[in-house]
Design brief:
There is one protein chain. The protein is an alpha+beta fold and 250 residues long. The chain has 2 domains: 85 residues, Gyrase A, domain 2 (2-Layer Sandwich); 158 residues, Isoleucyl-tRNA Synthetase, Domain 1. 53% of the residues lie in helices and 7% in strands. The chain has a 4-stranded antiparallel beta sheet with strand order 1-2-4-3. A hairpin with a 3-residue loop joins strand 3 and strand 4. The longest helix is centred in the last third of the chain and has 25 residues. The radius of gyration is 20 Å and the shape is globular. The two termini are 30 Å apart. About 4% of the residues have low confidence.
Length: 250
């Protein structure tokens, strides 16, 4: 079962604040911003700055205590600057999330293991923008090639470090996973969010596609990149409005 890394981190920070400062905060109030690769970390939070006035303590001191308390093997939290919290995910934790997300059964969505196959379907009157069409078609073509050439490999024993563009794509995938998990998003903002998230995912995928070879690489890299392909393809469908039919672009 998938559990969003950001939600796990939010909960850990909320528990640390309660333990250190006896202040109860709903974990969902702790905003995490994806800031990779701009700042070299995966998430950043300003929660220490937000509660500094309430506690009467300098934000950097709050941040240092949170970072010391919220210690987990899956990530590292560091206090930075005037009181920011910078969070870095471990490489193994990122790979584990890929393995979970590829099998994640999204509520309201049929199993899409075969979505990459060409088939006849009714054509929708509405079309996604060209960049989304192209990203989806590339994903499906590469997955078909992998199946045809029997290149869908099993989980490797060795976990290698991910490339920068692989991590950037994963972070966009995690942003969509957060969105799909969140049942509290206002209906009026959902369509805008879907469009923005879809485009960000397509852009990140095409940057990954332009810089990373999928085939002709070692077992670990091919497995990791195939997971990224399959999840991107699935999430482009999952985040699309109900009247969009991606199958016509196969």
């Amino acid at each position: 079962m998938f559990k969003s890394p950001s939600r796990t981190i939010q909960t850990a920070i909320a528990l640390a604040i309660n333990a250190e400062f006896k202040l109860l905060i709903d974990s969902q109030e702790i905003a995490l911003e994806i800031c990779y690769p701009k700042y070299g970390v995966h998430y950043s939070s300003v929660i220490a700055l937000a509660i500094s006035h309430r506690l009467g303590i300098e934000a950097i001191q709050i941040a240092k205590k949170i970072a010391k308390k919220a210690v987990f093997p899956q990530w590292q939290i560091q206090a930075f600057g005037k009181g920011w919290l910078n969070i870095s995910l471990s490489n193994q934790f990122m790979i584990e999330n890929l393995s979970i997300l590829v099998d994640w059964q999204i509520e309201g969505m049929d199993n899409c293991d075969g979505f990459w196959q060409k088939r006849n379907m009714a054509i929708s009157p509405n079309s996604p923008e060209p960049i989304l069409q192209y990203a989806y078609a590339r994903c499906c073509a590469l997955i078909r090639l992998a199946h045809r050439e029997n290149l869908c490999c099993s989980q490797p024993e060795v976990i290698e470090k991910m490339e920068s563009v692989e991590i950037s794509l994963l972070m966009q995938i995690l942003a969509i996973a957060d969105y799909l998990e969140n049942e509290n998003i206002l209906t009026s903002t959902r369509q805008i969010n879907r469009q923005k998230l879809s485009r960000s995912l397509a852009v990140a995928f095409l940057q990954f596609y332009n810089r990373c070879r999928i085939f002709g690489v070692d077992h670990a890299a091919r497995h990791r990149r195939m997971l990224l392909l399959r999840i991107t393809q699935k999430f482009l469908v999952a985040i699309a409005p109900s009247d969009i039919n991606y199958a016509m672009y196969l």
